[in-house]
Amino acid sequence: MLTGLNHLTLAVRDLNRSLRFYRDVLQLRVEATWDSGAYLSLPGLWLCLSLDPLRKTEPCADYTHYAFSVSAADFPVFVQHLRMVDVEAWRDNRSEGASFYFLDPDGHKLEVHVGDLASRLAACRQKPYAGMRFHDEP
For every residue of the chain, which 3-state class applies, written as one string? Predict the structure, then answer.
């Protein structure tokens, strides 16, 4: 049986550029590097960067993305930091909780978000999405 998310692997075009972004801009801890990859971490997250010449240069048009948690107190400072290093935003926030949506150097869609599943569900109970059902109710 599954016990949680194990790790994320992101295909990258330029390993050194991506390593600098995740280490210096997003401040993940570098755990190991090798010729074609790197392991980085945050508490509860294992991220692998994998050099892949097949990585497309354009971000996909769908909504698939990876969200990182940030505290409400740190959110404005962190977003200002991202804007100062000229990350590209890809979407405006349309949901509960403060969010900033941005691209990494390879076009992976990322988000920094204030809140968690409990706060999202509480907001949805107040204003549900079309057709939304909550499965903890009888």
Answer: CCCCCCCEEEEECCHHHHHHHHHHHCCCEEEEEECCEEEEEECCEEEEEEECCCCCCCCCCCCCCEEEECCCCCHHHHHHHHHHCCCCEEECCCCCCCEEEEECCCCCEEEEECCCHHHHHHHHHHCCCCCCCCCCCC
